[in-house]
Backbone:
């Protein structure tokens, strides 16, 4: 199995705690409403990062699940970076100590 990196981006000036709260609500929605899609999210970055002054969180997701998540992300007003569909990661790469496996 190969994965794509889905990078979710906080709002300008949004704190890590506020973004984490929005992500928790989003993933709870996906888990409850679209469990088959949630099961294809393999791992989450252990730590938040910052990019251009905004908080970001990365996820390793099965390629077909990325397309299924985009409408939900848009509906929940969670910005995301363009996904490089040519940059694929193996299960081993998505399982290093930088990633937390979602079960």
Residues:
């Amino acid at each position: 199995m190969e994965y794509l990196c889905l990078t979710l981006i906080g709002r300008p000036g949004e704190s890590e705690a506020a973004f984490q709260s929005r992500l928790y609500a989003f993933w709870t929605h996906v888990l409850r409403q679209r469990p088959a899609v949630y099961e294809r999210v393999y791992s989450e970055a252990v730590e938040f990062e910052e990019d251009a002054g905004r908080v970001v969180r990365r996820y390793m997701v099965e390629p077909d699940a990325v397309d299924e998540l985009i409408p939900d992300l848009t509906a929940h007003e969670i910005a995301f970076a363009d996904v490089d569909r040519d940059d694929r990661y193996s299960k081993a790469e998505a399982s290093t100590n930088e990633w937390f496996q979602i079960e």
Notes: The beta strands are 2-9, 41-45, 49-51, 54-61, 79-80, 89-90, 99-101.
